[in-house]
Amino acid sequence: MTFKTLRPLVVFFSLLCLFSSLAHAGDNPEKIIKLATTTSTENSGLLSAILPKFTEDTGYQVHVIAVGTGKALRMGQDGDVDVVLVHARAAEDKFVAEGYGEKRYGVMYNDFVIVGPKEDPAGIAGAKTASEALGKIAHTQSIFVSRGDDSGTHKKERSLWKEAGITPEGSWYREAGQGMGKVLQIAGEMDGYTLTDRGTWLAYMDNSPLQISFQGDPQLFNPYGIIAVNPKRHPDTNYQGALALIGWFISPHGQELIGDFKIGDNKLFTPSADAEEFAAFSKEH
Amino acid sequence: MERLTDATTSALMLLFSGNADLWEIIGISFRVSFVAILAATPPALLVAFALAYLRFPGRRLLISINSTLLSVPAVVVGLTLYILLSRQGPLGEWKLLFTQTAMVLGQVVLAFPILAAMSHSALQAVDKRAWETARTLGAGPLRASFTLMHEARFGLMAALLAAFGRIIAEVGASMMLGGNILHYTRNIPTAIALETSKGEFAQGIALGIVLLTLAFTLNALLQNVQGRGQPVS
């Protein structure tokens, strides 16, 4: 017998070992913060732009898990993450009221817009309110792509339909069940309308055939909040890390970085943390 | 079409310019899948030996179960382990969800049935007298097992390569169990899914090229190994 036949395999697996050693080994778990957040903060590029500075400032690594707001809150509820950064005010307040989260801190806001085909087949540009715009889409049976994933955007969309007094159903209403970026692509391919946060839209608009069809209604205000998972309910989460992240996000320094984040010439998020809240937070922790 | 060529050009540039993010993702993929293969192989070989050489009650049932596992979709493996590993689940104490270890576990579950089934048939094909001969010549059971594995080496290598090929390209379980965390659990398949959803095709294509090259290399090795395994006529 010879080992000749095995030689290529030995070489191959040795290379694998080399590769493996290149990837960095597990870090100190106390220095890792698990943050469940929405696809809008991740897909827009905000978090990858500012979190390295947080790591620099504090030494914490942030593991970002980007899902819809509903899923993110669910992960917090189960204690699978340490802190959540989401945008669905009613669901956030419920999360805190039921004792899953400790306290909600406002971080920033942007707004939702309705994007659609350039021809605007439903004629929503002239609508007075967002729910009226959706009413026109339903009335003309124009294609509307819904997130369909219980995300913050989806929750907002459902509340708008409710306000319009419409139960969206039929072949024109398509639930994608995917993140914001993917849904913008789907709507683009289908020449359909969709509701999106402005941040993700700005990040995608260069590659999209769609344009903003409706914007500016106060109903479309989109605030983001950050909440630490309640350590009383889940004592083994990284509570100290969560506090460090919250304190950094609502500090003047973090707020400035959020406000400075741009795609092209457009600011994506407006920082909105309450200075008094930050003072109280600093005192308490 | 222009988009495809443009994206492919940038993809090649990313690969050859040694883009750190890209190579880190590739490194994570290999590291996780390599550890998974290492962990799955010994128990799979044990089961394969038992199936090939022992006759015990429930043997046929074990074979059926293993064949069923062969076709379990990765997302089902992901979902099952997610429920088990979540803090609310029975193994929540281990704090493994959204770690590389969780991804390794998922890939072990996916690799195991392939390794067991293919090793079983490879070992089954070895002439039974090899064992008796080895034992007669004074080899202990362990030494005799190695003789059998050596006799079946081509089939066993094929099993390893096939299992590795499946798990390195698997997206469903890795996405659910790892959470696609940058620098940590983002591997080649989950990165491709994410980059596509962001409309960043260049990085997706670059990673796709890596997977294709890998698939080609594995297949070439497999052909080579199996080719040499043919009896000389």
Keywords summarizing the entry:
heterodimer; A: 285 residues; alpha/beta; 8-stranded mixed beta sheet; two-stranded parallel sheet; B: 233 residues; mainly alpha; 11 helices; 77% helix
Brief write-up:
The complex is a heterodimer of chains A (285) and B (233). Chain A is α/β, with parallel strands linked by helices.
Describe the protein in words.
The complex is a heterodimer of chains A (285) and B (233). With 285 residues, chain A is an alpha/beta fold. Helices cover 44% and strands 22% of the residues of chain A. In chain A, the strands form three sheets. In chain A, strands 1, 2, 3, 4, 7, 8, 9 and 12 form an eight-stranded mixed sheet that branches. In chain A, strand 5, helix 7 (152-164) and strand 6 form a beta-alpha-beta unit. In chain A, helix 6 (130-139) packs across helix 7. By secondary structure, chain B is mainly alpha-helical. Chain B has helices spanning 2-16, 20-53, 59-70, 74-85, 100-124, 129-136, 141-151, 153-168, 172-178, 188-198, 201-229. In chain B, helix 5 packs antiparallel against helix 8. The radius of gyration of chain B is 21 Å and the shape is globular. The N and C termini of chain B lie far apart (50 Å). The mean pLDDT of chain B is 90.
The percent range for helix content of chain A is 40-55%
Oligomer: heterodimer
Strand content of chain A: 15-25%
Tally of contiguous helical segments of chain B:
11
Number of strands of chain B: 0
Q: Give the overall shape of chain B, derived from the CA principal axes.
A: globular
**Beta strand count of chain A:** 12
Radius of gyration of chain B (CA) equals 21 Å
* Main β sheet profile of chain B: none
Compile the SSE list and pairings.
The complex is a heterodimer of chains A (285) and B (233).
Chain A lengths: L6 H16 L9 E7 H5 L2 H13 L2 E7 L1 H9 L5 E4 L2 H9 L3 E16 L13 H10 L4 E3 L5 H13 L8 E3 L4 H11 L3 E4 H7 L6 E4 L6 E9 L9 H12 L1 H9 L1 E2 L2 E2 L2 E2 L3 H10 L1
Parallel strand pairs in A: 1-2, 1-3, 5-6
Antiparallel strand pairs in A: 3-9, 4-7, 4-8, 4-9, 4-12, 10-11
Helix pairs in contact in A: 6-7
Chain B lengths: L1 H15 L3 H34 L5 H12 L3 H12 L14 H25 L4 H8 L4 H11 L1 H16 L3 H7 L9 H11 L2 H29 L4
Helix pairs in contact in B: 1-11, 2-5, 2-8, 3-5, 4-5, 4-9, 5-8, 5-9, 6-7, 8-11, 10-11
